[in-house]
Amino acid sequence: MYDLHPHLDAEVQPGSNILLTGPPLAGKRARCLDLLAAGTEQGEGSIIVTTKDSADRMLEQFAERTSYESRPVAVVDCVTKQQGDDVPERDRVKYASSPVDMTGIGIQLSEFLQAFYKDRNIERNRVMLHSLTTLLMYSDLQTVFRFLHVFTGRVQSVDGLGLYCIDETAHDQQTLNTLKQLFDGVVELQEHADPIVHLADA
After folding, report:
1. 85 exposed, middle or buried (CB, 10 Å; 0-12, 13-18, 19+)?
2. What is d(CA 18, CA 165) in angstroms, rounded to the nearest whole number?
3. Tens-place pLDDT, residues 183-193
4. CB 4 within 8 A of CB 37
């Protein structure tokens, strides 16, 4: 089991994918980073897929939570190349050309998962995708749904834990309901309230 305390009042099965919803300032990204950092401290792998901020910014925020230098922490950056910056790949950072490049995002994720799970025998890996809202700004719901179906399947296949953020105020209810089908649980975050956790098997 992945124990999500103290950041969320839940334990989830390996291979679970959890959607975090809430308005813009509800702290979805911070909560996901907290959950990844907690895993890193237990020797688990952490992979951040970012469609909003650069890898450097995300690693900076991660470092505020825990030291990652000699640990299995990696980032798939979908932002930097889109801004026209020519950047070499590093051990812990791979680049997709933009948030539209879902094939590229999927390939980079798979490479990191393979490196951690198969090559380094790290059996437990946490993956965060921030944010689905950005993906939906660039592509239609059907395309994003298909991409997430594959993405969540990859996390499931390595007994990982997937965490996904979405700004619920940016989408209609039908879009949210469609996407929720892909997840094993939904966490509702509000600015000044405790998170509400809904797990499929609870």
Report:
1. exposed
2. 9
3. 999 999 998 88
4. no
> Considering only CA atoms, which of 98, 99, 92 is closest in space to residue 71?
92
Amino acid at residue number 62? F
Alpha carbon distance 146, 52 (integer Å): 21
When pLDDT is cut at 50, 70 and 90, the band that residue 106 belongs to is very high
Question: Structure pTM?
Answer: 0.96
* Coil, helix or strand at residue 178: helix
> Beta strands of 131-174 (E only): which ranges?
161-167
DSSP 48-103: EEESSS-HHHHHHHHHTTS--TTS-EEEEESSTTTTT-----BTTEEE-S-TT-HH
CA-to-CA distance for 91 and 74, rounded, in angstroms? 8
Instruction: Give the CATH fold of the 2-199 domain.
Output: Rossmann fold (3.40.50)
- Domain edges within the chain: 2-199
The secondary structure of residue 201, as a DSSP letter, is T
Measured CA angle at 180 (ends 176, 185), to 5 deg: 135
**Residues 21 and 189 sit within 8 Å (Cβ to Cβ):** yes
